Amino acid sequence: MQILRKIASTSHKIFRNAAGFTLVELLVVITIIGITTAVAIPNFLASSRRSTFQAMVNEVSTLFEQARTQALASEFSQSGSNLKTPPGGYGIFLNLVSQKATLFVDDFHAGCSLASCFVNMNYANEDMANRVSPDGIYTAGSDTVVKSVAINSKTYMKLLQLSGKKEDDTNWTSSNTASVTVIFTPPYAEASIVAIDGGSSIPLKEFEAKFDLSTENAYRKIKFNRITTTPQIFQGNNAEI
User: Fold this and answer.
1) How far is C-alpha 11 from the chain's CA centre?
2) Phi, psi at residue 129, to the nearest 5°?
3) Residues near 83 by Cβ (< 8 Å), separated by ≥ 6?
4) What is the pLDDT of residues 65-76, one digit of tens each?
5) What 3-state DSSP class applies to 238?
6) By three-state DSSP, how is residue 22 classified?
7) Backbone dihedral region for residue 96 (phi beyond 0: left; psi -120 to 50: alpha; all else: beta)
8) CB of 70 within 8 A of CB of 108?
């Protein structure tokens, strides 16, 4: 009996000491969780937006590499009318109005079908002199689209501005409706840059596209030079400009 009393006494002490949280303690914990959540969620959302924005800029930059690689890999030969090399090579089209970056095949030329562009060409010698080139710009509905990137797929992302240097080293800054086309011509992937602005065709030696991340007041720039043919990405904060 004495042993049972000891067991009962010990059990009573255990249950008596196993008291729950007080109301004040619960309120303190809930407050801490609330403050932590209020700080963490905005930071997480901002990080997610920056990541999405950077991924879009990287994807646009990759289009230049894809076009250049396709031009270098092209072959000057044909079987019947099935050309292995598009007449005008591969290009990138950036448009402020459509907010799209488009990788395309420059296979359209007024009065020149895909097969007839190569009628006088000496394929064995890669005769560039007799090659009839298409128009060197993107022709919607006629040139073949390989891939298109929607720059403003999220409301906080935008292609804000196009600018560059003309062949005479004077500066060019786009209007709100301008576009830029970069063409890589086979077989050596020589690059040309043409801006279309206000109905005028403007040859450029280099250009840059500025992409805006409005929620973070930040930007990314893709710079491209027709000699180096390698796109470069730069970043910054609009407040620093």
Assistant:
1) 68
2) -65, -35
3) 114, 115, 118
4) 999 998 888 754
5) helix
6) coil
7) alpha
8) no
Instruction: Please say whether the beta carbons of 162 and 180 come within 8 A.
Output: yes
- Note whether 178 and 195 are within 8 A (CB): yes
Using CA atoms, how far apart are residues 159 and 211, in angstroms rounded to an integer? 4
Q: How far apart are CA 93 and CA 57, in angstroms?
A: 14
pLDDT in tens, 163-189: 999 999 999 999 999 999 999 988 788
**Beta partners for residue 209, in sequence order:** 162, 222
Q: Are 109 and 133 in contact (CB under 8 A)?
A: yes
138 within 8 A of 93, measured Cβ to Cβ: yes
Contact by Cβ (8 Å): 67, 182: yes
At residue 176, what is the residue type? N
- Say how far apart CA 39 and CA 32 lie, in whole Å: 11
